[in-house]
Amino acid sequence: MTATDAERWRELGQQLRVDSVRSSAAASSGHPTSSMSAADLIAVLADRYLRYDFDRPEDPRNDHLIFSKGHASPLVYSLFKAAGAITDEELLTFRKLGSRLEGHPTPLLPWVDVATGSLGQGLPIGVGVALAGKRFDQLDYRVWVLCGDSEMAEGSMWEAFEHAAFYGLDNLTAIIDVNRLGQTGETMHGWDLDSYAKRAQAFGWHTIEIDGHDVDEIDEAYAEALSIDAKPTAIIAKTKKGKGVAAVEDKNGAHGKPLDDPEAAIAELGGARNLRIDVGKPEDNAEPHVFETGPLELPTYELGAEVATRKAYGDALAALGAARGDIVAIDGEVSNSTFSEEFKKAHPERFVESYIAEQQMLAAAVGIQVRGWTPFTSTFAAFLSRAYDFVRMAAISRADLAICGSHAGVSIGEDGPSQMALEDLAMFRAVHGSTVLYPCDGNQTAKLVETMADLDGISYMRTTRGATAVIYGPDEEFPVGGSKVVRSSDEAVVTIVAAGITLHEALAAADTLAADGVAARVIDCYSVKPIDEETLLGAAALGPIVTVEDHWPEGGLGEAVLAAFADAPEHPKVTMLAVREMPGSGKPAELLAAAGIDADAIAKAAKELVG
Amino acid sequence: MTATDAERWRELGQQLRVDSVRSSAAASSGHPTSSMSAADLIAVLADRYLRYDFDRPEDPRNDHLIFSKGHASPLVYSLFKAAGAITDEELLTFRKLGSRLEGHPTPLLPWVDVATGSLGQGLPIGVGVALAGKRFDQLDYRVWVLCGDSEMAEGSMWEAFEHAAFYGLDNLTAIIDVNRLGQTGETMHGWDLDSYAKRAQAFGWHTIEIDGHDVDEIDEAYAEALSIDAKPTAIIAKTKKGKGVAAVEDKNGAHGKPLDDPEAAIAELGGARNLRIDVGKPEDNAEPHVFETGPLELPTYELGAEVATRKAYGDALAALGAARGDIVAIDGEVSNSTFSEEFKKAHPERFVESYIAEQQMLAAAVGIQVRGWTPFTSTFAAFLSRAYDFVRMAAISRADLAICGSHAGVSIGEDGPSQMALEDLAMFRAVHGSTVLYPCDGNQTAKLVETMADLDGISYMRTTRGATAVIYGPDEEFPVGGSKVVRSSDEAVVTIVAAGITLHEALAAADTLAADGVAARVIDCYSVKPIDEETLLGAAALGPIVTVEDHWPEGGLGEAVLAAFADAPEHPKVTMLAVREMPGSGKPAELLAAAGIDADAIAKAAKELVG
Hints:
2 copies of one chain form a homodimer. The first copy, chain A, is an alpha/beta fold. In chain A, helix 1 packs antiparallel against helix 10 (about 260-270) and helix 6 (about 120-135) packs parallel to helix 7 (about 155-165). The interface between A and B is large, with 112 and 112 residues.
């Protein structure tokens, strides 16, 4: 470092502050003070340590800079301006309708990997990117994550600390901006840097405590982080919120609002500057690792055989992994239940064990797909509710994720309601752009697993614990948005719409009904979202409908069916069978019967509708 | 301790093991090996340290014993048998249909505070109970939480560690059963007790490392825990999964299944025993603290005034707190946004700051209501998705929780999608027995806040960021399950169903339509669940319907309306207006317009429906 470096960094820091104040003033909202605390940290990082080609954001050798404290978006955008990626004119579109400079960063900007703004997500996602660098890309890029001190209260941060150390991610640096003040007051630890350091050390990290406004100390900290082997580094920086402007510096009550007098603040900061940061580019010529592959040989199952769709999921995923080197599997310490263990056995080098840390599991998947890998993530469907905020944010990140939830519904049996997903269809339907699939047999599952690998956005597959009969041949196709009419006749007077476990109950009900002289049509809605509106509209025109699902009545298959013909001119009567009382333990068949979603209940409902 | 004590504890431990093996064998499922590792820990605790009157589970002075590792339910039930609370005959109903001895513990049993089985929840809930003991009850009961080592990977555990230390909960003891083996293999830390101890110490806990099968060491550890002031204690116990039966002891692959040869195992454990534990009862005569109260003076707002429903929430909660000493407020470091700060200002002694730890926030609420207090929990509605698994489990716990999510929908404006709840209605509707409320004005909000305090189960209120016009007088009543027809005429040819922010857009649309000669009915569905089926059925008979919501189309108001008349003989055509594209930043009115849910969009949809 030279005196010139230090002087330039101090000036750059002031410029980033000024531009944060300016953009927030133009927007009449935003978080300038949270940006000002971290400006020096980012100035030194971008000027000396970051390796990033702003002209080639897709370059696999680029470093990754993630603002886990996404509300410091003015700082992100001020950096992009300083790096020459956006103009000053665009900077001042911050938070305006149609601008890609949203209130919190999103990947509408090509230099932003993931959306942040829900705290405690950037670091866990950074762990995923760093893991991809080490294990899959096998490239030397580094991952830098700017964290807020308030978000250190999120458990997901400690999942990230645990995993980063466990996987020895020395390519990951967390920069903790300890500005002491949260939204409403002081954090639990204020400026007690040691409290963060001892926690991080206990979790296996190297730590460095610095004055986050001393550019020399900042410089030395980054250099030290680069030198550490086998463990991640946390730079714990004491900073002042609103640094540089007396009216807001280290003042409570100045969170999340523009400065009252931006002109005075800009003057106090030394006025506007137009320094350009010449961000270093990746220097080597390495290419991402490519895993060897062979032909795709999806598993097939004999008609009439009994196979659990969760087993078919694992078999198909292993087969897909053999054919495609981009496929990665992640599981939450239940791979022998979800059957992702089949992938683990076949491709251990592409399997990530997330232990019982569902938030980190989803975040790792998001981070891994940032680098172009195709992650399949699995656990019990019920426990995906633990990571719902990560799924929600992944949609805002425009992430492509394939997620599988096993052990859905009361049909799991004895384990009881804590292990029964009864809200997962509602949860995943209410994700923007999502696909929700619910196969009923092995061959259908295998084909849909293959399909999921190429879907955009969040795709979810619900699998069943128990073995069910194979009803489709291995050559049948199951397009997303389609359905199968699995029982039909010209005399059909009622339609039963089912999926997954209840499809088999529906078929049994149709047999019972036929024996009683009532012809029923049965539709397999394996694609719950998008749903096959055309087929359902056709059925709706022909008579009443029974929907049946192993799920609460709200937000699942039944309501998806109703929505399909909401604006049709005429509607049939629809009886919605679903789980309406809190289940307990019991045998699967007992619980299906107790919930009123078994073959008998379906047949009864159908008869009442037609008779 | 005497030689007799030690001998009795060893025998008791064996009995708890035998009964765990027996009940799991009778069920042909269950987790005996996870129970066997902790049997000695529980034997000593129950025999010497626990203060609990099994005949009076409602006694406020009772200790609380929570199995955070809920899969060790055979151990729970074996303890209850040894304590004389259940018979051996009932023990053997484990996991059978209709038995209250479910696969994982639930409060169907009067001695179980909360349902567990989703890992990482028992300790955070225990923090809530301990906090209630210190701050609200002001009683000397202790909270003992048996934790698994696998669940230490859950971030929620570290939220609990952080909060327990921050609040100085020396009435809380975590007993960590380090049996080394998870479901699929070894945990990250195996038998490295120090790795847990140094983490817990870094978070401010006192720690004790012991051999979890040495009853002397166990006894000393509990005695030491009782002696520690101002900080919680973690007893970190090295144990063996399946302890005592060579076929499964410390063996991988023996998780979650009954023993292959239970008879041989029972013999190896020394055979069945029928020892009775005489669990100590609470000794003092203290009564829970009672906070002083006055009359209820709910806030009222003038017709036509502009007030944000989030502000009315805070005002009403403060008023309710003045009238009812059982009311407690908990917030996730955004009390100046949710306006729970009004309660905090008025009743600081009953306000709990959870910082940015939404899982711990919900868990604290669950723990606090265990002791009969009435918690109101608030944060941005979007961030409640962080705690969905806790809400799901709270329903299984039969917990009574009032939850408020502010800043819902695109109408928040500039902050962008990461801060916009667009899935919260779907999420909370799909909770068993839940109530979902969405007020549109200040007076309605105040009345509904009062109502929520007495509702069973999970109740959710969605509030709006911006100020909206007061349209109801202060004396209007808003029963759960009701609605208000706020615009009506005999000539009405179309019905608009709205709630919250969109109710105001619907009213403006009705004005526009009226000016164009189209009479519209407007229904305020403030009770989204249960929904007012009767009123909606009546409207449905009269013509087409437009539903409009600031939410994704899935699982929200629109689908709730469709479900209300699913089985009616005839249906009207329904146009569902909802947020269908990923929003960005912008002004609230711009974003409502961009999403197609503003007055213009409603008027247009209504006109298209009526032709």
